[in-house]
Structures are given as C-alpha cells and as structure tokens.
C-alpha cells in the first residue's frame, strides 16, 4: 500500500498546530465551528480531535445521514446512554425492552450529558432544524459541540460558536498527495506532468487525487474544479477605462490627438464591457 | 498558451506600448514572453535551460512562481539597471513587459495563472470555463491571428512616430504636425501634404510642399515656385507631414554696419553649396529707391518689403537677396536659416 503523504509532523493531512488550536478552543469550554473546504484536512480533523480529547472528555463523533432517530441513538451509544427502556406487560411485569422514541432519546441524552461532553459533528450543514434546536439546549446544558462545515451557515447555534478556519495545504503537500495517488493507481507521472496537472487541483487533496485518477482513466484534464481563483475581467475592463485619462491629459495639455485617442479608447472600452455581458444559456436541459 | 502566441502578443504589445519598431526591442520582448514557461521542461525555453526548469517544476506547480507579478518585478529589477547603464533602456524595458504580457495573456486560458504568487489564487479571465481559451485550441489561433495583426499595426504606428502622431496625421491635426516638425526638422526634410485651396482664387492648392518653418500655429511652405503661409495664401482643409531625406537645419545671424552685404552673403553661399538658405529680419538700406523688387506673385507670401529706408525680409531666398542688395550699403541684423540638403 502506498505511503500516505505527510503534512507537518502528523501522519494525516491534519496540521498539528491547527488541531491544537481547535482543541484549545474546546478545552476552554467553547463550542467550535471548524471551517474548511471539502477534501482538505477538514475530513480528517474530526477523528483527530476525538483522539486528542478522548481522554479528557466524553466524545461522540457522528455524521447525520438522514435519520434523526439513528443520529440520536448513535450519540447515546457513544456516550453510554441507554437507548431503550423496559417493556412491561399489562400487569407491570418486564417482558423485554423497547427502543426509546425520538423525543425520549433527546430527553434521555440531555439528562445524561454535561460539561464533560463533546459532540463532534462533521458535515454540519446537514443538521436539520430539529437537531440544531436540540443542540441549543445541549449547549445550554454545558455540552461542547465541535461542528465542521465549508462555510459558516450564519444562523442559530453556529452564530455563537468560535470559528477556526483551516489553512489550505501547501503546494508541496498537494504534490505529495498526487505522487502518492499515482503510486496507488499504479501509474508513473513525471515531475513535469505532475507540475502540469497540479493547477487543476489547486490546494485541495481530494481534487489532487481526482486529477490523478482522471489521468489514469485517460479522461481529459483541462478545467480546474477548485475554488481558489480570482476573476480578473473587471481589472481588464478597468485598465481599458483608464485610457480615458488620456482624454483629460489631452484636454489639459491642448493635445488634440491625445484628447481624441482617449475619447475613442473610452468608448471602445465601454463597448467591450457591454460585449462581455453577452450570455448564452446558463443551464443545461433538465438541470 | 503556445510559445508563438506568447511571442506574438508580447511583440505586438511592446510595439504599441513602447512605440518601438526596433528589432532589438522586439527581439528582447520575445525572449521576455518565453520566460514564464521556464517552469516546465516541456517548453522550448525549459529545454534550453533544463536544469533551471527541472528545479522549478520539482517545487512549484506550472503557472505559479514564474507567471506572477513577482517574477515580472524581479526581471525588471535586473534588466532596467543594465539597460540604463548600457544605453538600451527601451530594450531592457521590453524584457519585463514581454514577460508581463505573456503572463497576463495566460489568465485567459482555462487554468489561469497565479498572478499574485505567493498568494495562492489563480487569476482567470471569466468564471465560465467554456469561455476561456484551450491551449492550442481554435480560440488561441484566433488570438494569435489578432496579435499578429496588432503587431503589424504596432510597427506601422511606431515607424510613423507613435499612436498620437498617427492620429494627428490621419486627422490632419495641426498641433501634432507641428510636434513632428519640431522633432524632426533639425535632422530631416519635412514636407507637408496639403489639401486646400488658394486664398486668391479658391482654386485647388493640393500638393506636397516643403516646410520652411512655423509662425505660431501656421507653416511657411514652398513648392519651389513661391513661398506661402498656411491659412493666409493657402486655405488648408487637411495637412499631414511626410519625412524626406536627411537634412541639417542650422540658424545663423549676420550683422551689417553700413557695409555692402554681398561679400558676406556670397561667402555664406559658398560655405553651403547644396543648401537652401533663407533670410529673415529688418535692415536699413542707404538707397531704397534703387532696390529691385522684381515681380510680385499675388498668390505668394510677401517675403521682401520696403518701407522708407527699411527692408523687411521673411524667409527671403539668399540668391534673390544677393541680387537685390548688390548695390546697397546696409545696417542691421538678419537671421539666416540654412537647410543643408536642398529640397
């Protein structure tokens, strides 16, 4: 099996300094919202936090998968909280166990959690309104929550959390990920080819692996999927508009040629700006 | 982008921005345009400087460190002082400018470039990748074609004295023509292509005239038959300048103290055998009644006038002066304009 690339001193993509920063926030009694792009260390950070704080706090690490009851059952299991109650017959005799209802589960968990409890919740944008409202009560009861998302959703529980933004990996790390993935896929990519492909991945390890996989499959790699870009067309248009300065210089110095040139350039720039607004269909049929 | 597209864009841009048609400047611009691709061993320049390219591509993704304003600045810091010291500042400026234009043009490709390296943001032209150029694709070929067209235009404009001069010439703007005259008259013959009519009878005065000088914003011109002032003898509707052969224009003064001017004037004539020489100024003559005024051309500028004992000359040809003042004793100072390289 290919050796995993290293980032900093850790064995995963998690930066130890960033991990320590998040742990400090939680140790200080706050809830944390860790922000990072999908495919970066944010995917590995929840497990790392659980390992780092597992000895100090009662940790529950779980991702909401669509079932509220299952979600709360997983919390309860992780925190050793019962998820069932005795089932009694009409005479009051115990004849077995029956699972707690969703509301009972919520109540039961709230009664058994406190300041030593840490809920680690990757993919926090999936959390339903009901879960978020329950988390409000949990936080009020002293529970520390560590959520993970690509952006701050900017509502209810997220507003009160301390944000920790994860830094993007370095280019060197992305190169290592690509090299490692190429080795795993059994293909040999030269340094030149890796340098050529790397812009398509930006600084996202997920995309870095994907780019190598596409390369192996022979699917053309041309368009980057990463989001680390700046659209500079406004700069180009502003540069064209700056030719209008010539008009005023010409006016001030009495140079008619410069005056005319500046005026014509300004009009051309305005025309180009309008031409840039020409748009085709933005969505595909069925999109 | 392909190396040839980079080169075409850089050369076209340098010729337009620097107003240069010098092969050295354009050649340096081509070199500058290839420098960004030194970060990959697959490029031409990367293969020439293989160790450097291999070193860079091991450490950086393509289109980052060498495709940045930082790299342009570094090149400028090295090139400009060398250009200043060696006296080739324009050529030195073409190196970072060629690099900048090539780098900036790569923003229009699908992948973009890290213009602000080490800030890790890729600069792209538009967010829709379908509207960006594919390297070697049809879009790039269009860009290449347009760059070559711009290059031709740029060289044409640069050889015509720059873009403002071209506008002046095309539109017949007088201040631009005067600037051309002021820049070139000391070393070249400067002609005026005039479209207009004679003030005397409104017949067409279209033609090519040699410019003798300026008076305010008007030109003193000659067609070999007479001397004329624009918007006085010739009503000009459009005027553009044309450079002729190399010529040297010098100015002198001659002072006479109650003496016959002919020996001094002949000496001047002998000193400049192939020159057109014109005199301007006012002198006093002792026998104005004996002056030979010759026939007066009503369509031409009056270059010789007499009032009492005073003679006033305005771009009066030397040969005529020698004849007219042959028997006179004169006092005063006249200016002499000598155009070596008779039109």
Question: Which terms summarize this structure?
Answer:
heterodimer; A: 287 residues; alpha/beta; Rossmann fold; 3 domains; five-stranded parallel sheet; two-stranded antiparallel ribbon; 12 helices; disordered N terminus; B: 343 residues; alpha+beta; SH3 type barrels; five-stranded antiparallel sheet; 11 helices; 26% strand; elongated
Overview of the molecule:
The complex is a heterodimer of chains A (287) and B (343). With 287 residues, chain A is α/β, with parallel strands linked by helices. Chain A has twelve helices and eight strands. In chain A, the strands form two sheets. A five-stranded parallel sheet of chain A has the order 2-5-6-1-7, sandwiched between helices. A two-stranded antiparallel ribbon of chain A has the order 3-4. In chain A, α3 (68-78) runs parallel beside α4. Chain A is elongated and about 105 Å long. The two termini of chain A are 40 Å apart. Mean pLDDT of chain A is 85; it is low at 1-6. With 343 residues, chain B is an alpha+beta fold. Chain B folds into three domains: 3-159, no CATH class; 165-243, SH3 type barrels (Roll), CATH 2.30.30; 248-340, no CATH class. Chain B contains eleven helices and eleven strands. Chain B has helices spanning 3-17, 23-34, 44-48, 50-59, 69-86, 89-105, 138-159, 163-171, 174-184, 262-271, 318-324, and strands at 122-124, 188-198, 207-215, 218-222, 227-229, 234-246, 248-259, 275-285, 304-307, 310-317, 330-340. Chain B has a five-stranded antiparallel sheet. Chain B has a five-stranded antiparallel sheet with strand order 7-11-8-10-9. The two termini of chain B are 51 Å apart. The relative contact order of chain B is 0.10. The mean pLDDT of chain B is 87. The interface between A and B is large, with 33 and 38 residues.
- Element order, helices and strands of chain A? HEHEHEEHEHEHEHHHEHHH
Strand segment tally of chain B: 11
Q: pLDDT below 50 for ≥5 consecutive residues: which ranges of chain B? A: none
Provide the succession of SSEs of chain B.
HHHHHHEHHHEEEEEEHEEEHE
What separation lies between the terminal Cα atoms of chain A? 40 Å
How much strand content do the residues of chain B show? Answer: 25-35%
Number of domains of chain B: 3
Total domain modules of chain A: 3
pLDDT under 50 segments of chain A (min length 5)?
1-6
In CATH terms, what is the fold-level topology of the largest domain in chain A? Rossmann fold
Biggest sheet of chain A: strands, sense, closure? 5 strands, parallel
Shape of chain B: elongated
